[in-house]
């Protein structure tokens, strides 16, 4: 640090202009000469002091035109120097400080007694000579009494002082040829290649180049720009990420302004509640509200990252969550977060680029924002939350897989696993509501719960007009042809009298927009252009379709193809459901972890409930309702048909 005072010859920067004090009168009026045009400015000492306090005056050395030299290099702070150099500078300062007490200007007179006194105090067995102390003194004065001016600086750049331009050219050529490559070249290999290249050069030139030592080659490699080395060896993206500048990021002004979404496989193995066999690692999809650092909705299960998993998490995020505390009685607090987000920030996964999600966000008035490719830091809040969840919950459970193989060591995750999926859900919900939301967050002045409550004073969360309207929006939209059989979707038929009216109005084989709940094929919504409303159309085989998911239905169709059924009635549908149940049971007991995981995706509460139905006890389904005429051609035909282009 430089020390300055208001005296003649003092250089300073006044309002970004370089000036020098050339005269000070008795009434403390300072005349300043501006360097660029030699103009004279007048300020009082009081004015300069006030300008110094508001950082409009910066003191410099006493010579404004002094050019930096090798001996004039100074560090801004003594602590930035190596410890050895700090000790040397402090020792030299002790000699100068004692000399300053006896002499106003640097001189050699009387320094012998001063050196003897200080060396005894410092226990310095190798005291300096008077002329050495005098040089230190002069350097300290010229350096504006800055202690860092007492440090010895080496001339030139490390590793380059002994070598000429020819050597530097050979070094840089070899650097580009073998070192700055994706193929790993060790420093020792580079040194040997450099020595060999120099020997070849010396054989054909009259001015030989000195062969560097191994330490010199290593020092020169260390001086190569670190960004350049990392970009060459690991790629520019890796270098940009490593040397990135981290700021505060986007700061929302109110809750629900910015919500980030992401998936992650949980770092724990779960077991089947019946067989006790490991069925794999479940996925977690999370919508995270950034303003209050509040999880808005999560989905835990074996559905891989897809449009369906996003819709499940979005449904929970929008709706109030009183049912969570009712399902898990050990949870003491509430989860008050709900509402339609203003913006949804996601990565570039295929599920986020689907036309269905784009339509859903448009109907809910949600702005969909995509992060740049391979830049997860653009949604860092949800990334950090998922890491916290894995660290504080999953890594504490038996059967954890940890974050990487190095942390896992020889821990056998599959052998130690004992947590079921339902138990894991309860643990995660309890941690989220009773721990995370109640704990202070370093990015907030309080915990997420208080931050959310404070945010409610500024804005009120938005909700859809009804829960049924939300289910309609979150459904899967496709186009189908309308016929006398109604509407066919994946070899299931849906028909009512309302469809006959639409067919009369718009003609046979007219195209209509339908929406399907992927988790319940018992009914569909059909858009009526005349009324502008969606009509609820049930399946003609409700005993089969009610509660069955799209994934389960496709599995049944696969079994049907395998057994080559030509026609399917209600009884045969239940037989195939029973076949699916047996297949799930067999997969749950197999040694293949992948098969057990797939079986878990197919197993749902609705399918379990269907297992208990006795086919013989099913009521007879009439072929036609009153006022709804059918002929033989109206009977649904389940023969294998070519799939529709939208299927």
TrEMBL record:
InterPro entries: Integrase_cat-core (IPR001584), RNaseH-like_sf (IPR012337), RNaseH_sf (IPR036397), Transposase-like_Mu_C (IPR015378). SUPFAM superfamilies: Ribonuclease H-like. One of its GO terms (biological process) is DNA integration. Residues 261-456 form the Integrase catalytic domain. Transmembrane segments: none annotated. It comes from the Bacteria. Pfam families: Mu-transpos_C. GO terms for molecular function: nucleic acid binding. This is Integrase.
